[in-house]
Specification:
With 165 residues, this protein is mainly β. It has a single domain, classed as Jelly Rolls (Sandwich). It is built from one helix and 13 strands, in the order βββββββββββββα. The longest helix has 14 residues.
Length: 165
């Protein structure tokens, strides 16, 4: 007589195959990153410089002008946003690729009727720039994780289970 074997799940390695990792939206809270901008850190890989985040921007929110040290991949889930330096507008369903060295100012138009929700995978540092082009802040996977954990703690939330942290 054979005994039915349990169906393997993605949370348990099978035959030495690494398990897939899952985080539900409610497991990783959104916290205010800047006025009008909330961030959810999904994954970090500090040795390779990868950080994967989700940002929600209120209508009219603008991030500082910045330059990327590596590639950026973005997918818009809701709302609309653009770079002030370019004419294109990213709307729900839009995909954007940014090469390393790209400089821009992310802006959610004040005319938006909903919160803008964007998923980003970023390799390397994000260099915030002042009006003269001088670096004012270097954001990388490690700092983004520290800021996120700190903001969660200040909000009285448990330590978030960010993949890779």
């Amino acid at each position: 007589m054979s005994v039915a074997q349990p169906v393997p799940t993605f949370s348990v390695p099978v035959d030495g195959i690494p398990a897939a990792l899952h985080r539900g939206e409610s497991e990783l809270p959104f916290v205010e990153f800047e006025p009008g901008v909330e961030m959810q850190v999904l994954q970090v890989d500090i040795p390779t410089g990868l950080w994967v985040i989700r940002m929600r921007l209120q209508p009219g929110a603008t991030l500082p002008t910045h330059r990327h040290g590596g590639e950026v991949f973005a997918f818009t889930l809701a709302g609309a946003w653009k770079y002030l330096e370019y004419p294109e507008v990213n709307t729900a369903g839009s995909y954007l690729y940014e090469p390393a060295g790209s400089i821009h100012t992310l802006h959610a138009p004040a005319s938006n009727t909903e919160v803008t929700d964007v998923w980003f995978a970023i390799r390397g540092p994000n260099l915030n720039l002042d009006a003269e082009g001088k670096v004012t802040l270097i954001l990388d996977a490690g700092l983004v994780l520290k800021v996120y954990q700190s903001k969660c703690k200040k909000a009285g939330l448990p330590r978030p289970a960010v993949i890779g942290a």
